[in-house]
Specification:
The structure holds 4 protein chains of 4 kinds. Chain A has one domain: 2-Layer Sandwich (Muramoyl-pentapeptide Carboxypeptidase, domain 2). Chain A contains 5 helices and 5 strands, in the order E-H-H-H-E-E-H-H-E-E. The radius of gyration of chain A is 16 Å and the shape is globular. By secondary structure, chain B is an alpha+beta fold. Chain B contains 6 helices and 5 strands, in the order H-E-H-H-H-E-E-H-E-E-H. A 4-stranded antiparallel beta sheet of chain B has the order 2-3-5-4, covered by helices on one side. In chain B, helix 1 runs parallel beside helix 4 and helix 2 packs antiparallel against helix 3. In chain C, helix 2 packs antiparallel against helix 3. By secondary structure, chain C is an alpha+beta fold. The longest helix of chain C is centred in the first third of the chain and has 19 residues. Chain C is globular. Chain C starts with a strand and ends with a helix. In chain C, strand 1 and strand 2 form a beta hairpin. The relative contact order of chain C is 0.19. Chain D has a single domain, classed as Beta-Lactamase (2-Layer Sandwich). The longest helix of chain D has 21 residues. In chain D, helix 2 runs antiparallel to helix 3. The chains are: A alpha+beta, B alpha+beta, C alpha+beta, D alpha+beta. Strand 1 of chain A pairs antiparallel with strand 1 of chain B. Chain B: It comes from Paratrimastix pyriformis.
Amino acid sequence: MIGRSERMCSAACLELMHAEMVSYFLSARETRESAQKEMERLGFRVGQKLAERYTKDYGRITEPMEVLRFIFSDFWPVVFSKPPDSLTTNNNSLYYIEDTDFRWTSKISVTSRTTLEDASYFLTFPCGIVKGAFAALDVDADVKADFQETPSRCLFTIIFKGKAIPTR
Amino acid sequence: MANFARSGEMAFLKADKINSEIFSLTYGAMVAQIMKDYEDIEEVNRQLDRMGQNIGSRLIDELFAKTGIPVSSNFMETAEVIAKVGFKMFLGITANVVNPTPQQYSLTFRDNPMVDFVELPDNCANLRYCNLLCGVIRGALEQVQIKVECHFVRDMLRGDETNEIQVRFLEQVRESALDQSFA
Amino acid sequence: MINCVAVVGKSNAPLFLKTYHVPETLKFHYTVHTSLDVVEEKCTIRAPSSTVSTPQDMYLGLLYPTEEFRIYGYITATKTKFIVVTDDVDVRSPLMEQFCKNLHTLYVNMVCNPFYAIEQEQKIESPVFIRQVEQLVQRFNEGSR
Amino acid sequence: MTIFNFLIFNPSGLCLYFKEFPAATSSKNNPDSWKLMYGLLHGLKGFSQFMAPRPSPSGRYLRCLSTHEYKLHCFETATCVRFVISTDPRTPDLHDQLATIYNTLYVEYVIKNPLYKLGDRIDCELFVTRLDSYLRSLPCFASS
């Protein structure tokens, strides 16, 4: 298990800062696509660094299946404040992580001026983090996320590229 | 004074918390990106301040809601609230209030999770890496009808022995002014 | 006495190499480079008792000896390699393992600097890291004397 | 006992949120009645401050206003946002419940909702639904 670090800070700080980041990129970039690309890249970088940190006392992981397990049961609960609800797959290269109370978006709800699409930009950075963590552990994966009706219920799709993970 | 420290402590204990590196890495990645976006370091400082202001204007409600500390619109009193309650409940650290006067005070602190692991590159002599904090303070006080000016005068990332944020009183927005907007 | 510490990135790019008490000659670069093959070899062998699900040790122990040196290796979960070259004939392995673990901590902290481009496997130029590694080496060398 | 309506005012007196319950037979759903109510609250605040025998340590003065037909319960935050609920006069003080609404609903689902722009009308889905179920769960609501 990854322990809590000696230093903690309030989750509200992170939530509000993440919101500012999203609004910065959406207004500073010409298209929404390029804003998303940037945010994913930033998340990727942060994810790599977090993976570097959180595997330090975990040990060396060599098999992609172990990496997936590490991300699901160790990395996720720490980075996203609670364990995800389920991990499912329907073939060798497609995995789904469901989080029914995803803390990074659980307080978001649409208003009369906004739609679920506006809320979806808040998933880009977290997806980048997960993708970066996989990459740091040498697993080339694409990570996408969608809301399941409301922004607090999220389904993350992990698409393994290159060598497929054998199901056990 | 002591009860402010206690309120901050209690609020921090009760709050939803995350490992501080998640916060500091996210902030760091954002600062590094803004520095790429703007050649002018002063503009980077302004962007960070502006983001901080937006955060502060929301964070202040979290502070009052979670601590239940009494309403204060006295400028000098806000110093203790920021130093002992705000810094504690959000960042887990406390600041000291230095030289408080009705016109201005300073907040000093050495420990700061935002800068854990940060080493500034050579090309950013004028960067105020934590300028977000100034914006947060400004934005928060604005919500309690106090307008201030806020900036870093000492910064440990630049070799100073402590961090010091100076807060200068500008004006108190009176309730009567609010009445006019209502009429 | 530790004579050389090197950090090698995921894709075998040299990130950091410093020598201590000896001039930084090509020899060390060569030694570090050769040792990577041994690291790779060692990584493919699993501890016999382990199953697929157990994380492996990062410390790889002695990679190989030469006439002058003994070369130790350590590999992180993210496949960053630390190579340590010492001229001691008899190194207490737990001490070396501890050295590598401490080096790992310093490395992780250095990586977390927001201005370090981890994805580009940027060369390590952080003065803080360089200084701290030097102190670590110094402590090790004093202890092993 | 019963709840008639619930309102939130921002510091400049704009009504950010209005909800009327079926028990209210004469509707207050128009900007003029909101202005009237805000003006009254604002005036009462000054008056209660003026009448106080000593300064209130919490900085708050006005809790409720009671008449034969209704009772207004008020809660003002440090940021000058006012929460108001109007009920049957026999309803006990709802000050704490308003504080709970501020604390667990307004801050969490309005303030921390990045899709909500400060100062806008409050129509965040999560806030609206949770507020509604919270108000309906109050004892004074059920017994109407």
